[in-house]
Amino acid sequence: MPSDILSNIQNSMSSLSKGQKLIANYILEYYDKAAFMTASKLGKTVQVSESTVVRFAVELGYEGYPEMQRALQEMIRNKLTSVQRIEVANDRFGQNDVLSTVLHSDIDKIRSTLEKIDRATFDKAVDLIMGANKIYILGVRSSAALASFLGFYMNLMFDNVRLVHTTSVSEMFEQVVKVAPGDVVLGISFPRYSSRTVKAMRFCHDSGATVIALTDTMQSPIAENADLVLAAESDMISLVDSLVAPLSLINALIVAISRRKDQELAHTFSELERIWDEYEVYEKVEN
Questions:
Q1: Of the residues 71, 158, 178, 210, which has the fewest C-beta atoms closer than 10 A?
Q2: Which of 227, 202, 229, 210 minimizes the C-alpha distance to 218?
Q3: Could you tell me the pTM of the whole model?
Q4: What is the pLDDT of residues 99-137, one digit of tens each?
């Protein structure tokens, strides 16, 4: 089966029924919208039955409509413009309650991530971070928030952490130029993938560092140069990248590392609590 679903549809056109051709033509023209439609909604849109939509997916070689839909979504994840995202969001939400729709979608992403993530890979990532000479954390644009969150807690647990934050490609390379074998690089990127992160991770891999990618799929461009891939499902919600599942995975990573450094962290945080109290870092709330 061709990796490009649109090519697959075009190549299969001659063997499709009249109803299936209606589906095919709609997808070829409006693939950005079709990717997020249920089989029922797609059928109603082109005026065929839901079962015709399902048979169409099977005719293309997919096990069912969900697999074909995932192939469509994967193809467009990194291609949608901001305007297209808004249009897709309007189609998805319709008259539905936005709050409920978004929260339930995030819950589904965490559940799916939990079911799919490889536990051995997760444990190995923890081992590599624990034994690293230096730890570099890369994440820009929307992933910068994830990188900063991870960097904040990593800096409390280690003395060898460098958070790479920049808006310039050249500055990013300047911050990782000393990366070397024995170092661990954690690169974070989700659709739309940052070319800066992809290039920096390739440089770090070529420099002999161990590279861990935090991304959405094994097919992600930052996974190409990674020794390990920790995958968490993300989603496109209008202009917003839903990064709830990736943040939950990062939480798990932080907790797993903190358990390994239990006694050391107890001493560190005991000292920090004294400093925070002395310098009034936090507001005291009276009960």
A1: 178
A2: 229
A3: 0.71
A4: 887 888 889 889 989 998 999 999 999 999 999 999 999
